[in-house]
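U., I forgot to send this yesterday:
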Amino acid sequence: MSVSKEIFQNEHIVLPVIHAETENQVLDNARVAYEAGCDGIFLINMKDPTTSTRMSYENLRKLHKMVRSEYATWWIGVNYLDLPAVKVFENVDSTVSGVWVDNAEIYEWLDKQVAAHKILQARENSGWRGLYFGGVAFKYQKEVDNPGLAAKIATSFVDVVTTSGKATGSAPDLEKIRLMKESLGEFPLAIASGVSPENVKQFMPYADYFIVATSILVHGTENFDINKIKSLIDNVRG
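Result:
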């Protein structure tokens, strides 16, 4: 059994992503996700589209601690987009439930996964024991010719193989997801782009985790729409 299945009660896990802006905005969105019955959340430091600036990982870490003080036992993870994966584990502690990195450095054409081993070593050296969501066949990276093989290789390095569509808000090809899950078997697979209340059911036979943002936001904002989140949860739990 995957370690992730020992942490969560539900068969399919819904983890909304808060694009962190301010303390109040993060707390308000965490409350919406919690009250809607989500299994947890991720906090991420996306670039501000109007200024092209990004919140530092130090500030995101402070926001994580703030949310943790409100929700002592809830699952709360982070994605530090301004840090390379080998540095992420130096900047998390036991209060961080999970780490998500967009690129787990898995290359299916290589015999030795040197970069992925370095990330694994950094994690082991840190002593951190949370869930590691590692990006495989992920958006804005070199296209993977054999996603099933890449997913299989990744099982030696990550806790949850995490993939996406071609862009933010873009759903992945269903055949790609099917092939990856076929290679993974019981090992968990997460989709981190393009899942919506309308399409989630088609992915449920193959994906275990849904990491969701764009489709559940109030249009033109970085704030969750409570009705959209409830619709997503209803469709997943139903």
